[in-house]
Write a structure and sequence with these properties.
about 240 residues, alpha+beta, Structural Genomics Hypothetical 15.5 Kd Protein In mrcA-pckA Intergenic Region, Chain A, Alpha-Beta Plaits, 3 domains, nine-stranded mixed β-sheet, four-stranded antiparallel β-sheet, elongated, Pseudouridine synthase, RNA-binding, S4_RNA-bd, PsdUridine_s_RsuA/RluB/E/F_cat, isomerase
Length: about 240
């Protein structure tokens, strides 16, 4: 017997966290009955459906995408905008993004139907680093950079220390290019940190996810992860030793 949200995640319905939301909001049935309790366990003979569509067990898929700006990091969009899933060709399985990048942010994004790996990659416990490069208005002072490196509290929410490097600056245009390395992945974290020290983001790109880079990809391109890359991600997140 396994928890219902874990079964949904392994079936490629959504990440573990998103599966929990589907359950609590009444979208999931077990043997024809709506189930909203997260502690519910099901076995191999139980019939599970989401919005009356029976789930099936799919082969795991792991894709890396160079997300362009102007694309939403969801599998479906109520406003009819282009999604990251729309950019992935020749994948029959139902995949979803691991975490998200803002609509106006570009860069490296992973998509999969492996709910366990997705959950671990987005959990701060495993401290998988993400590297961003941002163009900002203003030039961060040494004091501003020290604040970000030491960790900050913004609107009552604590943010862990981040690695910050000034890559270049333009005194005439009063702009700078900075690199941040984070492992928390909170919503809008890069933008909030930089805005808090008086350097709002003009343009943002995620260049690395752990050891993965965008090398060989153009905006909108995608590729399957190599077996060695998948093995390393699982090692980083404690799925294998």
């Amino acid at each position: 017997m396994e928890r219902l949200q874990k079964v949904l995640a392994h079936a490629g319905v959504a990440s573990r966290r998103q599966s929990e939301k589907l359950i609590t909001s009444g979208h999931v049935r077990v043997n024809g009955t709506v189930v909203t309790e997260l502690g519910t366990k099901v076995g191999v003979h139980d019939q599970v459906s989401v919005d009356n569509v029976p789930i099936t067990h799919e082969d795991p898929v792991y894709v890396m995408l160079y997300k362009p700006r102007g694309v939403v990091s969801t599998a479906n969009d109520e406003k009819g905008r282009q999604t990251v899933v729309d950019l992935i060709e020749n994948v029959s399985q139902r995949i979803y993004p691991v975490g998200r990048l803002d609509y106006d942010t570009s860069g490296l994004l992973l998509l999969t139907n492996d709910g366990e790996l997705a959950n671990r990659l987005t959990h701060p416990k495993y401290e998988v680093e993400k590297t961003y490069v941002a163009k900002v208005t203003g030039i961060p002072s040494n004091d501003a950079m020290r604040q970000i490196r030491q960790g900050m509290t913004i609107d009552g929410e604590a943010y862990a220390p981040a690695k910050l490097k000034l890559l270049s600056s333009d005194q005439k245009k009063h702009t700078a290019i900075v690199q941040l390395v984070l492992h928390e992945g909170k919503n809008h974290e890069v933008k909030k940190l930089l805005a808090a020290v008086g350097c709002p983001v003009e343009k943002l790109k995620r260049e690395e996810y752990g050891f993965l880079t965008l090398k060989g990809l153009q905006a909108g391109d995608s590729r399957y992860l190599k077996p060695s890359e998948l093995a390393e991600l699982k090692r980083l997140t404690g799925m294998v030793q």
